[in-house]
Automatic annotation (TrEMBL):
Catalytic activity of the protein: 4-CDP-2-C-methyl-D-erythritol + ATP = 4-CDP-2-C-methyl-D-erythritol 2-phosphate + ADP + H(+)
NCBIfam families attached to this UniProt entry: ispE, PRK14608.1
Keyword ATP-binding carried by entry: yes
UniProt lineage: Bacteria, Pseudomonadati, Pseudomonadota, Alphaproteobacteria, Hyphomicrobiales
Residue ranges of domain GHMP kinase C-terminal in the record: 215-274
Name of protein: 4-diphosphocytidyl-2-C-methyl-D-erythritol kinase
Gene3D superfamilies linked to this entry: 3.30.230.10, GHMP kinase, C-terminal domain (3.30.70.890)
Amino acid sequence: MPQPLATRAPAKINLTLHVLGRRADGYHDLESLVAFAGTGDDLRLEPGEGLALEVGGPTAPLAGNDADNLVLKAARLLADRVEGLQLGTFHLTKRLPVAAGIGGGSSDAAAALRLLARLNGLPLSHPAVREAARLTGADVPVCLEPRARMMRGVGEDLGEPLNLPHLFAVLVNPRVPVETPAVFKALGLQPGERLSGAGHPLVEWGSLLDTLKTARNDLEPPALRVQPLIGEALDLLRQTAGCRLARMSGSGATVFGLYEDCKTAAEAAKDIRRARPEWWVKDTNLR
Ligand code: C5P
């Protein structure tokens, strides 16, 4: 019996996200410092004939139908490029909120590519693996090897992994899905339009928190117009003791607060759960 293969699909957090402009094809050029959380979904692959997916876990009912699942999309894109690729049945334990700006679907797809690469003896640097990641979605390449790094372009231009100092975070999602295209549309850029002065200030690595404060998430204002609960979640985080920075991740609705230590973060998470018991709240580390 072949051994099942398993991997964690961690939440992706955009610590910063600067929009540099809109390309002629409609996609936006970005510059983003991406980190990964200690929390995420879990994916297991049972090698076998054909390709299948079973989804369980607390947020499985929100994950949509299997046909749209990025795990299957990524696996098919890889199978189209590698002759005789061995596939099997994926078992996804879904814990992250969906359409949430923390790359749940993208990280699941990247995890599927990692497992298929391992099963078939392909390095993650293999051009077919890279291409399958890029074609699955803009955030999939950065999730392939989930380490903090700069991400540029539409998401395909990746910097070297960065050793960030420990960051303690609280993630808050008001359990309302936010569609990424709607947020980019609300930004209101025309195809070909460039933004001047939008370059990233992350050159000095003195104090990461102080440096992060000089950066932004440019999708925050349009996302707040699309979903005002994001503003409420940011306000709640800012009111917690010891919150050094509160910002939205990706196109929302998940927001994160950063704290000096894990105890302060745990207390803040408790406060937010007390105020909004129906929201998804998670204290975690980022790296
Ligand atoms: O690639 P993905 O399917 O994740 O992107 C979803 C949508 O988000 C795109 O169709 C596009 O409207 C928008 N997007 C964008 N610029 C990016 C990434 C996504 O305009 N860099």
